[in-house]
Amino acid sequence: MARQRIIDERLLMKATEELLLEKGYDGFHFKLLSERLGVGRSTIYEYYANKDELIASYMEDLMTIIIDKCSKLDIVHSPIQQLKGLLEIFITYSQIHQFIQYIPQLRRIETNEMKVHMEKLDQDHRKLFSLIVDIIKNAQKEKYVRADLPPELITSIFFNSIQIPKSLETDQKDWTEKLFSIIYEGIEKR
Fold first, then answer.
1. What's the pLDDT at 1?
2. What pLDDT is stored for residue 95 in this prediction?
3. Is residue 82 part of a domain?
4. Residues of 83-115 as b/e, b for ≥16 C-beta within 10 angstroms?
5. How far apart, in Å, are the Cα atoms of 186 and each of 38, 91, 125, 164, 180?
6. How would you class 10 by CB atoms within 10 Å of its CB: exposed for 0-12, middle for 13-18, buried for 19 or more?
7. In the prediction, which pLDDT does 168 show?
8. Residues 89/151, Cβ–Cβ less than 8 Å
9. Residues whose CB falls within 8 Å of the CB of residue 68, separated by 6 or more in sequence, listed in order
10. I want to staple 139 with a disulfide (CB 3.0 to 4.6 A). Which of 56, 113, 145, 167 is the partner?
11. If you ran DSSP here, which 8-state letter would residue 169 be given?
């Protein structure tokens, strides 16, 4: 039976994410991906020259989704709702932290294509950080958040909170509420 020669880009990115989460950077290769998608490896090579280009492209797509969701938070009226929204986005897409760790390996590839990918990822990272800082500055201006703390510090706390392991019995919404409560209200007994 002949293998299909066309790949749905969304399925390709979904399978890439799944395999990266399962196998990590070193365990990810086109043979596994082709088996998962039911296509020949040569079909994947028609789209991407190597796994690094595919991973970089996947990371760009993921950053675009996250930036888009963060950009839409300004529609929400309350700065507190915006901050909760940020945390929920970060928890929903917590895999971004794992994938960011692959960037040094991706930077070793010095093709023009990879340079373009790395520049775009750097640009997206700066844009995301700037969006978050702006939300926090607005919350500070509206007196919802302490103004004596640098917005960049609060941004880092929000972004890095996704590395806290979620307890198994807690759903994502409840986990977001608990983390937000600790970040926003602290741990002081009330």
1. 43
2. 84
3. yes
4. bbbbbbbbbebeebeebeebeeebeebeeeebe
5. 50, 19, 28, 16, 9
6. exposed
7. 64
8. no
9. none
10. 145
11. T
- Token look-up 């993921």 returns 62
Q: Note the pLDDT of residue 2.
A: 46
CA distance 180 to 84: 6
Report the alpha-carbon distance of residue 184 to residue 174 in Å, rounded: 15
Report if residue 190 sits inside a domain.
Answer: no
pLDDT in tens, 141-177: 999 999 999 999 998 888 888 777 776 677 888 888 8
- The DSSP line for 8-69 is -HHHHHHHHHHHHHHHHHHH--HHHHHHHHTB-HHHHHHH-SSHHHHHHHHHHHHHHHHHHH
Domain hosting 129: range is: 51-185
Interval 94-104: pLDDT, tens: 888 788 888 88
Cβ-in-10-Å burial (0-12, 13-18, 19+) of 40 comes to middle
- Indicate the number of domains in the chain: 2
142 φ, ψ (degrees, to nearest 5):
-80, 0
- 38 and 131 together in one domain: no
| Statement to judge: residues 73 and 97 lie in one domain | yes
* Whether 59 and 95 share a structural domain: yes
